[in-house]
Q: What sequence folds into this?
């Protein structure tokens, strides 16, 4: 007679583990902008919509944050920053273990070559300032899987 204690198949056991596993921590948005008012306003808006945010004032801080924070699910970056710009930040991310991170660029000072370069770096979108907040919120929710 077969062993009665083991009534679940391996596939059923895996499915049960998936359903009963604890939920992953909500992902955060990393906002990178050298303009303090702009980054804080954007973070405040997203937080009011239930999105957790982390902010960085430049690309170097953003890279350090990405190494430290494992729960970053989306990056929103300005294009024009010092000591290196948003495109260079994205290039460095694309060459790291975070290469698949979804990225949205926001910029008040961009031209066609910038937009083309950004698209070659596989960004989700390129939004011009002033930002259409409804469109940005829709992008954030889609990329984080939060509806």
A:
């Amino acid at each position: 007679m077969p062993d009665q204690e083991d009534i679940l198949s391996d596939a059923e056991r895996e499915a049960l583990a998936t359903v009963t596993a604890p939920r992953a921590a909500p992902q955060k948005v990393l906002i990178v902008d050298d303009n303090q008012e702009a980054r804080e306003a954007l973070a405040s808006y997203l937080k009011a919509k239930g999105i957790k945010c982390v902010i960085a004032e430049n690309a170097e801080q953003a890279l350090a944050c990405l190494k430290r924070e494992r729960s970053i699910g989306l990056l929103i970056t300005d294009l024009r920053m010092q000591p290196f710009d948003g495109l260079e930040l994205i290039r460095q991310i694309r060459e790291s273990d975070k290469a698949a991170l979804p990225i949205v660029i926001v910029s008040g000072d961009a031209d066609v070559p910038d937009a083309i370069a950004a698209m070659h770096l596989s960004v989700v979108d390129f939004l011009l300032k002033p930002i259409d907040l409804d469109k940005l919120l829709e992008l954030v929710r889609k990329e984080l899987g939060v509806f």
